[in-house]
From TrEMBL:
InterPro entries: DUF1731, Epimerase_deHydtase, NAD(P)-bd_dom_sf, SDR39U1. This is Epimerase. Belongs to the NAD(P)-dependent epimerase/dehydratase family. SDR39U1 subfamily. Pfam families: DUF1731, Epimerase. CDD domains: SDR_a8. Residues 3-214 form the NAD-dependent epimerase/dehydratase domain.
Amino acid sequence: MNILMTGGTGLIGRRLCADLLRQGHQLTVLSRQPATVARLCGQGVSAMDSLDAYTPDRVFDAVINLAGEPIIGARWTAARKARLRESRIFLTECLVQKMREARVKPAVFLSGSAIGVYGDTGADRIDETRAAGGDFGAQLCVDWEAAALSAARDGIRVVLLRTGVVLDTAGGALTKMLLPFRLGLGGKIGDGQQWMSWIHYQDYVGLISLLLQDQRISGSVNMVAPGAVTNAEFTQALAAQLHRPALLTTPAWALKLAMGEMAMLLTGGQRVLPVRAQRAGFQFMYPKIDGALAALLSAAPDA
């Protein structure tokens, strides 16, 4: 396939580029820093510095849209919320318009989203039929998905990647946790009963390959492993792998004081099931958290 990707220089994007290159696909990555693309994404990956270069005569078999400013960072002020929306929704709308103008349209459009679309759902088991939540994060995903789904009107198969926490020791959430846990300073958040739905990066890229090829799949897909855990369970599993205690607790009130509305990303959660992936026959390499962490940390330096 000839594939156009946004967000290709990010952590997930780099992992995905390496996997797709191994399979023999041709890749073009949209980046504001095109000179870094070959170094970050792999030799042979082409760079596109602007969507203006996606002219009607250019032919892509597939488009993968992973771009978006990280949702955890500075406080969710009105200005930051606007940036979060623009980095997801506006870019997706522009991308869909370019696909619409193409003389030969892509067969498939895989577009990012997050399991945050469901809101804080407590201990309920959630599949892709669950209605969206009403908080800022959920509505951000709703509008992001709506922008992507508009491509379906042009006959393009659209898949919404409702992504959980991607576990990887090269970056992301797990990397931020490793130092305090190695120092014996790790611990649960609040009462630890909030659910965490996660996926090993190798399963994530494997599932992307399935979604690119399987023409039966469209709409939302939960990009999570089947073994969701509570925050307390994850804390104990990580501490056990590192042979360290995990006795501390970060009070929920302290997070809310420090992070404001954004704290809900850590104090709330979703118990999400990958129903559509499993029905499509996808076999997870790492369905359980202990196996996923063991594999990641055995391959990581200073594990």
